[in-house]
Design brief:
The structure holds 2 protein chains of 2 kinds. In chain A, a hairpin with a 2-residue loop joins strand 1 and strand 2. In chain A, strands 1-2 form a two-stranded antiparallel sheet. Chain A has a domain of 43 residues. By secondary structure, chain A is mostly helical. The longest helix of chain A is centred in the N-terminal third of the chain and has 18 residues. Chain A is elongated, with a radius of gyration of 27 Å. By secondary structure, chain B is an alpha+beta fold. Chain B has a single domain, classed as 2-Layer Sandwich (Alpha-Beta Plaits). Chain B contains 7 helices and 6 strands, in the order βαββαββαααβαα. Classes of the chains: A mainly alpha, B alpha+beta. Chains A and B meet through strand 2 and helix 2 of A and strand 6 and helix 6 of B.
Chain lengths: 85, 209
């Protein structure tokens, strides 16, 4: 009876150890953003849209989503298929 | 938002070097440094000549970041790989690690002394106050902070070079390939001047052509 219990325990331990293989390890280098070693590197959307050279842009200062939308709208102008149709 | 990426359409690039010029002008890049360049293969071979515009590809797992001994690289929220010139020692490891040859080194003195590394910033400036004189002097223009895309991509006359949110430019490219075809399908009269409505049409016999 005792060897059977030991074998069962061993089996459980082996199964748990095997599960470790299913884990996902971080594969990219450390993600540093925004601020770096005391140097200011503000987010692009934290800037005043009217500070843009030549053409004032349209987004709300500090609002990431509105900045992304403004950038996407500008991005889509690179698609002349939609402009021609 | 997805990550900021460049995508160059080899079928469209005409090797005009407009992107290189736009980058030089926008960022006031010094002599001897090319943040972007156009590479051509099979030069002069009809149908086989392809050009592609290359700069820093802002890798998701950038080898330059991995090898830098002073850890001067960082990645922004938008997936742009930037570096701190105050920390850079100009050792050149990043140049050896980069598969695209993106890191550039200005000659900083006599005997070929290397200056601090310079590379494409996706027109996102660097670790200085946004849109400040210091930022421009060290890293060039910060167009992302102005809600604009990189100058090279926006300047591209044939729209071969796309730059911006990876998802958006992938959609644009996908639509392009679906409409025009790919590889040898892109070549020929039909692509240049439109495909005929009636491919079976022939000249009427006996008439002048």
């Amino acid at each position: 009876m005792r060897p059977a219990k030991a074998a069962l325990a061993l089996l459980v331990v082996a199964a748990v150890a095997g599960l470790a293989g299913c884990g996902e390890r971080e594969q990219v280098v450390v993600y540093k953003q925004g601020k770096y070693q005391g140097k200011p590197d503000a987010k692009p959307w934290s800037n005043d849209p009217s500070a843009a050279v030549y053409t004032p842009q349209k987004w709300t200062q500090g609002d990431q989503t509105s900045w992304e939308n403004a950038l996407k709208a500008r991005n889509l102008t690179q698609n002349e298929y939609t402009r021609a149709e | 938002m997805a990550r900021m990426k460049f995508l160059c359409d080899a079928e469209r690039c005409i090797e005009c070097n407009g992107c290189v010029t736009a980058c030089k002008q926008e960022n006031e890049v010094p002599w001897g440094v090319n943040r972007r360049r156009v590479v051509t293969i099979n030069d002069g071979v009809i149908g086989a000549e392809k050009s592609i515009s290359v700069a820093c590809m802002h890798c998701s797992d950038a080898p330059c970041m991995a090898v830098c001994p002073v850890d001067c690289f960082y990645r922004t929220d938008e997936g742009v790989v930037l570096h701190d010139k105050d920390l850079c020692i100009g050792c050149g490891y990043c140049f050896y690690a980069c598969p695209f040859g993106a890191p550039q080194f200005p000659q900083a003195g006599a005997f070929g002394l290397r200056g601090k590394m310079d590379k494409c910033t996706f027109c996102a400036g660097g670790p200085e106050k946004d849109l400040s004189r210091e930022e421009f002097t060290k890293y060039g223009s910060n167009r992302l902070a102005q809600g604009k895309l990189p100058a090279c991509a926006e300047m591209c006359s044939t729209k071969a070079l796309l730059g911006g949110d990876g998802d958006v430019i992938a959609d644009i490219y996908r639509q392009r390939v679906t409409k025009r075809g790919k590889g040898s399908e892109v070549w020929g009269w039909g692509t240049a001047y439109g495909r005929p409505d009636n491919p079976q049409a022939r000249p009427v016999p006996g008439t002048k052509s």
